[in-house]
Structures are given as C-alpha cells and as structure tokens.
Amino acid sequence: MGVRTASVLVVDDDVDIRETISMILEDEGYAVACASNGREALEYLREHQAPNLILLDLMMPVMDGVEFCNRQRQDPRIAEIPVVIVTASGQAKEQCAALNVKAFIYKPLALDTLLEKVEQWSSRGETS
After folding, report:
1. Per-residue model confidence (pLDDT) at position 21
2. Structural domain harbouring 67
3. Where on the chain is 4-aspartylphosphate found, per UniProt (predicted)?
4. What's the total number of domains in the chain?
5. Is 2 a domain residue?
6. Where is pLDDT greater, at 95 or 29?
7. Angle at 92 between CA 82 and CA 6, to 5 degrees
8. Which of 50, 62, 114, 120 is the S-S candidate for 37 at Cβ 3.0 to 4.6 Å?
9. In this structure, is residue 128 part of a structural domain?
10. Mean pLDDT score, 117-124
11. Using 50, 70 and 90 to split pLDDT, how confident is the model at 1?
C-alpha cells in the first residue's frame, strides 16, 4: 500500500504566513505549493496538476480572493478544488457563504484548527 500525499496550494500575499503554513503542512506530510496572489495561483493551476485543497487569503494585491474564486468557478478543470479561506476579516462567515467555499479559518491561525480543516477538506485519508 503506497502512501498518498495530499497537495495544498497556499495563496497569501504575506510571505511570513505563506512560509509558516507551508512549513507546518510539509511537516505533516503534505505537498505544498505557494502563490502570493490570485493571479499567481491561477497561473500555477494552469501549469501544474490540481492540488487537493486551496488555502486562500481574501485580501491580496493584484487579484484578491473573491476574484480568484469567481475565476476558479468559471474553469471546469479547477472549479471543484475545495477552497478554505484564511482571513482576518470580521465578515468571514458572510463572505464564505457568498463565495461557496468549504470553510474559513481566522488569522492569527490556530495550529489545531488549520490542521483539522486541511485534513477534512484535502481528502488525504480517502482512497481514490
């Protein structure tokens, strides 16, 4: 039986947050890629195999999380990738409902919450 490695795309304009999340998830056995804004994330998704999960910040320059979600839904190849919002916004619940994402995590990140949401939505434990 081979080990299944779930992959996660971390999209956040804050380099410290990207690096911290990446390091935590890699320590847990996930394959991690990073992008600093929605446009970079879409370019990554066009050029690489789709990840199991996208962790997405809402407030970013160039292309924010809302625009990214709208474009993601328009592309059948990536539309079904689960998205978990990572945000400091007090409007997270309303924003997530409007964007039809799977869940949200508040910044500053609680490690146990991050790992729980990633495990839940990345389908790492499921067989294909």
Report:
1. 95
2. 7-122
3. 57
4. 1
5. no
6. 29
7. 25
8. 62
9. no
10. 85
11. very low
Hey, is 23 helix, strand or coil? helix
Secondary structure (DSSP) of 75-103:
-TTTTTS-EEEEE--TTHHHHHHHHT-SE
- Which residue is it, tokens 């990207």? 18
Q: Which residue has the higher pLDDT, 1 or 120?
A: 120
DSSP 35-66: ESSHHHHHHHHHHSPPPSEEEEES--SSS-HH
* pLDDT tens string 43-67: 999 999 999 999 999 888 999 989 9
Peptide bond into 108 cis (omega under 30): yes
Beta bridge partner(s), residue 2: none
Q: Output the domain CATH number for residue 17.
A: 3.40.50.2300
Structural domain includes residue 68 = yes
28: left (phi over 0), alpha (psi -120 to 50) or beta: alpha
- pLDDT over 90 (residue 39): yes
pTM: 0.89
CB 37 within 8 A of CB 13: yes
Residue 88 lies in a domain: yes
